[in-house]
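ugh ok fine here u go
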Amino acid sequence: MKSQFLLSGGLILIFSLMGCSEENTASTPEIAPQIPNARTSQPLKSSANSNVIPFSKATKPQSAKSESASNQASSNINIAAISENQKISGEGIGRAKVGMTFGQLKKLLGAKAEFIVKSPFMVDLDAIAVSESGSVQFYILYPAWTTLTDSQVIQYLMTDNPVYRTERGVGPGTLLTKAEAVYGDATLFYNTENESREYVKFVNQGSANISFRPHAPKEQQFAGIYPSSPNSYHETKEYNENSSIASVLVSCPVEKCGKR
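structure:
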């Protein structure tokens, strides 16, 4: 049964860009992935039951990435130990797949899993934290002011748990220098019209259903080092070498889940 999510404010949900390798300019700004119904810039909330890495307030970045750091990172990711139950792909996160219903996921995970509602999770957005052995594995995201029923389709999955990785070994906690060594050149970007949420894409990252959010070093708002610009869209290939991936979002493609 198709999800009956209620979207407020007429916002459009767009997740198609992340597989694109073409460089954008200020005159043709890239549309960043948008979380449903989010209207203002606000980080993912932390709680006693979550592993969400908070985003810091803005200060001037201290240093850019270095070529030596990128080269050093190239052989430090171990992909041999990634199991299917801990793999991030364009289909989902571990055993959870976008496009399955919430009821199907609960049946699949069984009694060992806990499903804890986090409300609010972000601006206009609630989540269900899926925990096993007392640790949050991932989140199911859905619009606030609604209830995710067993018959509804899962459209968005997010994890900040570092045990989850792509098939190339990249996931939460991976330094951007290491991810870049695996997936090629990184481009960081944000748009003030899209809540100034920062994203990073890699030229060879593969699935367009996967979105990466960077984690800036302490006391910095952005991982990227951006040139001054009056435009709403900002893009850079320079970033602080201590920046890492904070979380990974997997969205259900339109052809599978329909329009949001």
